[in-house]
Amino acid sequence: ALGAAIAFAALTRAEASNLLVFLVLPMVLLVPALPWKRRLTLLVAAGVAYAVVVSPWILHNLHRFQEPVLLSYGAAGVLPQANCDDTYDGPLLGYWSGRCAFPSPDDIPETRNPDPDLEVVAEEGLEFLGDGDESVAANIGLERGLDYIRARPGRAAVVSAARVGRIWGVYRPGQSIDLDTVVEGRGRAVATVGLVVYYELLALGIAGLVVLRRRSVPILPFVSLALLVTFTAAAAIGITRYRYPVDLGLVILAGVALDAGWRWVRAPRRRSGTPRPRQSERSDAGAAGAAGRDAQPVGSAG
């Protein structure tokens, strides 16, 4: 079932497929006292369930495009925009630049406009490719991005760190508000409040993880989301919306932390070290008190 669930997630965002590595694999391997044959069976079952769900879409893509396309060619569009001079230095370090997309205005002689209309570029870009379709353009863009990375391995590592810092809100968070407002189309007030609430949820979420760990509740599902988001940012772009899977998990963890805090506030006797009487002791004490009142002489109350 977990493999199928990951497959459905991958049909919406292809990077969700990495949960097979970040969630399923450690979940099976870290189970104590489980025979290796059983572990292998579980891994194969998850893989088969994943394949059954995604294979119709993959087969459809392989049939309709000129070049092989599996789930999507999103990575081919991201890599050239995330790996170029604009994003390896300067204010957009770790972000993306539309000027680096393929096909770009510089690739099309008829569209050498410093501020071109993107729809015009896209239409003329397909004409520029001739008989090639989007998959052909994707392959060219993919190679362009990979070539840029290969030529600058040391700098690529720095850029990946900046991407991770951006997505976790620790690198240029103020600029992230500007980019979310201008590039992503959010209102500035919404972007600002969103960042503040994220910091609050992050603090509560870490506390919630500690609470679950102390209760011996598995925390791997939440940790796997953090690993997925970090990996995606390091390999692609440090953009706020790539963090949404973690944000959903933080809401749950924050609820756990708040519930634990409320329970702690409601239990002052336990905090002061006074043992709480057992239910049977309270019942015995109540019965003894009632018996004493019944045995009192009628006139003794005066």
Task: Using brief descriptors, characterize the structure shown.
mainly alpha, globular, 14 helices, 3 domains, 302 residues
What does this structure look like?
By secondary structure, the protein is mostly helical. It folds into three domains: 1-71, no CATH class; 73-151, no CATH class; 154-266, no CATH class. Helices cover 68% and strands 0% of the residues. It contains 14 helices and no strands. Helix 1 (2-12) packs parallel to helix 3, helix 2 (19-29) runs antiparallel to helix 3 (36-64) and helix 11 (220-235) packs antiparallel against helix 12 (244-265).
Count of runs of 4 or more consecutive helical residues: 14
Total strands: the figure is 0
Distance between the termini: 74 Å
Give the overall form.
Answer: globular
Number of domains: 3
Query: Considering DSSP H and I runs of 4 or more, what fraction of the residues is helical?
Result: 55-70%
Mean pLDDT: 84
> Could you tell me the radius of gyration in angstroms?
29 Å
Low-confidence stretches: 108-128, 295-302
Strand content: under 5%
Biggest sheet details: none
Order of helices and strands: HHHHHHHHHHHHHH
Strand pairing plus helix content: what structural class?
A: mainly alpha
Write the layout of secondary structure elements.
Elements: H1 2-12, H2 19-29, H3 36-64, H4 74-82, H5 85-88, H6 118-128, H7 134-151, H8 153-167, H9 173-182, H10 188-214, H11 220-235, H12 244-265, H13 268-271, H14 279-295
Outline:
With 302 residues, the chain is mostly helical. Helices cover 68% and strands 0% of the residues. The protein starts with a helix and ends in a 7-residue tail after the last helix.
